[in-house]
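Reviewers of the previous submission asked for a worked example of the structure-prediction workflow described in the proposal, so we include one complete record here. The input consisted solely of the amino acid sequence. No template or homolog information was supplied to the procedure at any stage.
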Amino acid sequence: MAARFCAKEAVTKALALDAFEGHEIELVEGGSEVTVALSGEAGRKAAELGVRVLVSMTHVGELACAVALVVPR
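From that input alone, the workflow returned the following structure tokens.
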């Protein structure tokens, strides 16, 4: 759960959104890959920029980390 929260926060920062809206950022698992589905303001911002968002999550013990990359469509 912590890594997923980190991923949503990283997406918020990568898109330079004004506020964290976790319900607008959905992490969809598909085998070994996690894709990002955006809605609301997050979806509008990504469409406006013409980008998609990739995430990488990791955790070990009690530590969790995530990175979000904004790449052209």
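The chain is about 30% helix and 45% strand. We consider this example representative of the routine output the project will generate in years two and three.
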